[in-house]
Amino acid sequence: MNTYGRLPVTFVKGEGVWLWDDQGNKYLDALAGVAVNGLGHAHPGLVRAISEQVGRLIHVSNIYRIAEQERLADRLCEIAGMDRVFLCNSGCEANEAAIKLARLYGHGKGIESPAIIVMDKSFHGRTMATLSATGNRKVQAGFEPLVPGFVRVPFDDLDAVRHVAQHNPAVVAVLVEPVQGEGGINIPKDGAAYLQGLREICDQNGWLLMLDEVQTGVARTGTWFAFQHTGIQPDVMSLAKGLGSGVPIGACLARGIAAGVFTPGKHGSTFGGNPLACAAALATLEAIEAENLLAHAEQLGDWIRQALLDALEGVAGVVTVRNSGLMLGIELDRPCADLVKLALAAGLLINVTAETVVRLLPPLVMRSDEAKQLVDRLAPLIKNFLSQ
Ligand SMILES: *Cc1c(COP(=O)(O)O)cnc(C)c1O
Hints:
It contains twelve helices and 15 strands. By secondary structure, the protein is an alpha/beta fold. It has two domains: 11-30 and 292-387, Aspartate Aminotransferase, domain 1 (Alpha-Beta Complex), CATH 3.90.1150; 45-290, Aspartate Aminotransferase, domain 2, CATH 3.40.640.10. It has a seven-stranded mixed beta sheet with strand order 4-10-9-8-7-5-6, sandwiched between helices. Strands 1-2-3-13 form a four-stranded mixed beta sheet. The longest helix has 20 residues, at 368-387. It binds pyridoxal-5'-phosphate (PLP). Pyridoxal-5'-phosphate binds next to helix 4. Residues 90-92, 95, 123-125, 177, 181-182, 212, 214-215, 240-241 line the site of pyridoxal-5'-phosphate.
């Protein structure tokens, strides 16, 4: 169906951070399938793991025990400090699981109509519940009636959350992205203090702190998960995008009291956590560790930000360049969606979100010479665009 305004290009193969189209043109990929292809394209270890798994077993059913799923769940819990995992196929499904979990938790406390605090400019997906949670009218318009049970507050505003705590006894959870992705690479201004403050408010009120790490998770910000920059631990966390390197998989992790909320029959998925998807995720986590990509993502992201700042210094129209690891945003003073096409024509894949923010989500495996090429290609495009 006509759900995407597509760019006129067809990619036929990839290797590392490079893609080739059907005309033989080569592109530097600074978007990674929107934070999915963390290992770049055709990563040998990933290809081997997936190929072997396809030859052995693709799918059975969650009616049975699945060894690959148990291994993945153990590994995810280990690196995240969580207790249990529900596996699904996408980010919105991971958030659906979190929303259902929060409601069930609320009903368990005798709250008939539980509510979840969500943020302005957030993005949680395109299903009915997750678009209702999303803080963007464009995502919601035309799909009313929305799912009720969400209370919206500004992002990065602890006082607004405290205010809700005083006035709304139906609240059972907070759902928040540690860094807002679709909303424009919005990073809390006082760093760790925001999540720490939310953790405190949740503890005081018996709420679940639920982090949507669909975009920030799996090494993107330079730690396995973005909350690990803050010293706090969430009760619930959703993952997807980078988890399976392109093989669809999502995960909803829970800890403590939240981990015991679902019981058999309360939630499920036909495909979720099948052997193929789990093998892809296990291989992804293994490669991230073996290739030391956490530290690399942090260092390279900071390097790219500084290089862009240097290259764009004094250029009128550049508002800020910000990053958390390899989640980078260049905010301009005007809508800049046209930059995507200009970059494509120059052999560079980027994205624009929130109308005025150039978003870069490069593969975690990008090398420093490739990062230099990215800056060398992008900075002149932005300068040219702003000078017109
Ligand atoms: C992409 C995204 C989603 C939705 O994931 P899908 O796999 O497209 O359903 C949810 N939350 C965040 C933060 C995202 O970036």
